[in-house]
Amino acid sequence: MTKITLKVNGTEVSEDVEDNLFLAYFLREQLGLTGTHVGCDTTQCGCCVVHVNGTSVKSCTMLAVQANGAEVKTIEGLAAGDVLHPVQRAFKEYHGLQCGFCTPGMIMAAVDLIEMHPGPLTPEIVRDEMEGNLCRCTGYHNIVKAILAAADEMRPAALEQP
Amino acid sequence: MKISDRALKAVGKPLARNEDLRLMTGKGRFTDDFSLPGQLWAAMVRSPYPHARINGINSSAALQIPQVLAVYSGADCEADGLREINHNPVPSTKYDLKLTGKDGGPVFIGTHPLLPTDRARYVGEAVAMVVAQTREAALTGAEAVMVDYEVLPFVAGTVEATQPGAPILWDGQADNILVDSRFGDQATTDAAFEKAAYIVSDVFHIGRVTGVPLEPRAALGHYDAQTGRYTLYAGSGGAVRQKHELAHVLCEDPKNVRVLSFDVGGNFGTRNRAYVEFGLVMWASRKLGRPVKFRADRSECFLTDYQGRDLVTEVSLAIDANGKFLAMRASNLSNVGARCVSLSPLSKGSGLITGSYDIPVATLRSRAVFSNTMPTQAYRSSGRPEVTFAIERLIDKAAKQLGIDRFDIRRRNLVTPAQMPYLNAVGSTYDSGEYETNMDKLLRLADWDGVPTRRADAKRRGKLLGAGFANYVESSIGTPKERADLIVAPDGIEVVIGTQPAGQGHETSFAQVTADLLGVPFERVKITLGDTDIVSAGGGTHSGRSMRHASAVIALGADDLVAKARLIAARIFKADEADVEFDDGIFKVAGTNITSDWFDLARRLQELQLPDFKDGLRIRRDNEMHTPVFPNGACMCEIEIDPDTGALEITRYATVDDVGRCINPLIVHGQTHGGIAQGVGQALWENCYIDPDSGQPQNGSFMDYGMPRFNNLPFFKTEISEVLSPTNPFGVKAGGEGGTTPAPAVMISAVEDALAPLGITGIEMPATPLKIWTAIQRARTSKASAGE
What we know:
The complex is a heterodimer.
Chain A: E1 2-8, E2 11-17, H1 23-30, E3 49-52, E4 55-58, E5 71-73, H2 86-93, H3 103-116, H4 123-129, H5 141-154
Parallel strand pairs in A: 1-5
Antiparallel strand pairs in A: 1-2, 3-4, 3-5
Helix pairs in contact in A: 2-5, 3-5
Chain B: H1 20-24, E1 40-46, E2 52-58, H2 60-64, E3 68-73, H3 74-79, E4 119-120, E5 126-132, H4 135-144, E6 146-151, E7 177-184, H5 186-195, E8 198-210, E9 218-224, E10 229-233, H6 239-249, E11 257-260, H7 276-288, E12 292-295, H8 298-304, E13 307-319, E14 325-337, H9 344-350, E15 361-370, H10 384-402, H11 406-411, E16 422-423, E17 429-430, H12 435-445, H13 451-460, E18 464-473, E19 481-489, E20 492-497, H14 506-518, E21 525-528, H15 546-572, E22 580-583, E23 586-589, E24 595-597, H16 598-608, E25 618-624, E26 632-641, E27 648-658, H17 665-684, E28 717-721, H18 737-740, H19 743-755, H20 769-787
Parallel strand pairs in B: 1-12, 10-11, 14-15, 20-21, 27-28
Antiparallel strand pairs in B: 1-5, 2-4, 2-6, 3-5, 7-15, 8-13, 9-10, 9-12, 13-14, 16-17, 18-26, 19-20, 19-25, 22-23, 23-24, 26-27
């Protein structure tokens, strides 16, 4: 057991955790934040993506103790109260989700992509950059559209320069 | 109820979904999101052998492990009198083709106990369960259970399992064949083949794939000794069905079983049959007095989720000198795996072997065989991609053989609208459709005329362009019964119904239907699903049945509800019932200025507490509807192959799908996209490969099972065609699975078109770069040696 202190969705938490506990299960089972899903346990599907210090991370293969001192944002912390994040709004408008299981990881990864990718986002870039997230329902078609639409709304002109 | 287009305000609109908000904000309710105080964890001991006798199970070492509480085997299940899962695998609605055993006898379906006592029959079959305080301890315990296996010869291959001398899975059976039925007219078919100018034949294996819902299957069972009731949290394709099946397993009155299936992370048929772990966690909870949870990891899902397809089909087409189809012969062989869970794929495919074409006579032999593999189940368009692949690939072959353009030969043979309803040669009655129109629309949508230009352009870039095409017709049958409760409260209308979505948007599309039928705003309707203490009956979601069955029973229920509301209004307003008129959500007493709407009526009724209407403004309606519908369409794709690497890129993909009435185009297009991806996946990447020497499945993770991904799929052009079905009130057929049905045929059609200049035919699915590259190398080598 190790005591860790970190910020989760803006709130400081201090918890004793098993040394072999993955961040995903720490969030789900110890903090009750079940929006972060686990689809494979092996970093292959992306359902578990959260942000750690502002960068997307597959939380099923990061130990909770590694997040000591970090700022973690999960899908539960993405919207500002009742105001959805632009990526969430775009997923709804473009029907970028069906069963919704991959959706939290998909949205968290997409937010990171839109915020961090230098240069314009094209369908090809979105498809290549998001390749580590799997979806079985949508054929990705509407997810790509949603991400591009959200990017149009979110991205400062500077990022759009090639 | 007759549906007037005037009343349709929400139906037909691409409304965003009611489901989305909770799913996008982390508030979904998937099975593993539930935990109960004091819960224990279960892990399965799984057979490492495809076939082995279980001579004993020693749990003493496992029980020494800290936190391990119990180890249970099949003998323990038997001692407690647990029954087998009664899958009821033989399709039995009025319009299902009737499958039989050999010589017309009953189908031998074997047994499916929670844990076997005699033999393990496939790799991954659970033979014991360990329950512990934590999941880690349960998994460690499972590794410590010593099973005394006597390894037996196995058979995994579909054709191999039918052959004399193959290891037999079930005692008392002469072989592994459980179904052997013949359909159609032998004499007239033989006569037609006699006089045919051409006979075109082929054999295809539509391989084994798996559904891969992204939510791993999970179950949380809780037995409450105070009430004597079981509760199971487990996502599925229909909680009501699971409730009854699990009550049977536990020898319990169904009223003492509650099943909760809220958000379900993908199904595709995979979750439509009960899993042994569901019964096991319920039983273990009773034995140990605490809730018990199970969660499969991804490898367990690859190994032991019910799998799909695996059909071998031998087909021949008799054709006259003008390219008109005269007759067809088919022999289909379905691999059901080690235990017979569902014969739906074989049955549904059997009724559609003649595809979209007017083939006057046909014979069909339908067989099913046991093998030492994971049981198969209906998967994303059960049985239809298989037979569509057979007829469409055969027609492409015939076109080449006869030297007729592939569209011309299809046009000469398509079933016409004038022939509807059309009785095909194996007894299926197609309800409606405009097949040639679909084809024409598609060719325009996809700019088929531009293929030669694009092919030349690809060639300049060193690529081989292939254009694939297929028509399809499929069937939506499904459990015939559905129930809806329609409940009007002062603040809204609730519909309780027994379907089970896994992403299909029932909370939205059913609300659209209800809103228009009752003349209320869409926002005022709420759909309740998935808790068997609230949902008393219902057929679940499979076979594209839900929109059709739901809209039908809600339409009937709406009629009843209006009738009841008129009675209530008459009483409240002291009018004659005959004078209460209803139009577009408003009740009006004729000749007065008295009007009321649903919510006003419900409020007044609540206040007045009329003794005759104590249950409030609500009705319960049951409907039984057997008549199937036949969604249909046309599909094309274009690919470019790099001949140096065998790499394939999909550059164009378009479909026209006749879904009947489209309730929500946003949802239907989305369903089609996902359906396409799954069909394309089977054609190009997906395969549950079993090593023939060891019988070991080789695909245990996303590293070794080829999934459709962001960067191997294109955008799709999908167009909806609405030819209303005459079989149900809204004219609904079905959407989504039409994306899957033609996809394998259309992809392989494109691959063969691309490779035709090299003289390559017969690429098997999945058409991986290695297979394509190898075929190209062979063709070049043989061309070179021929030239020497």
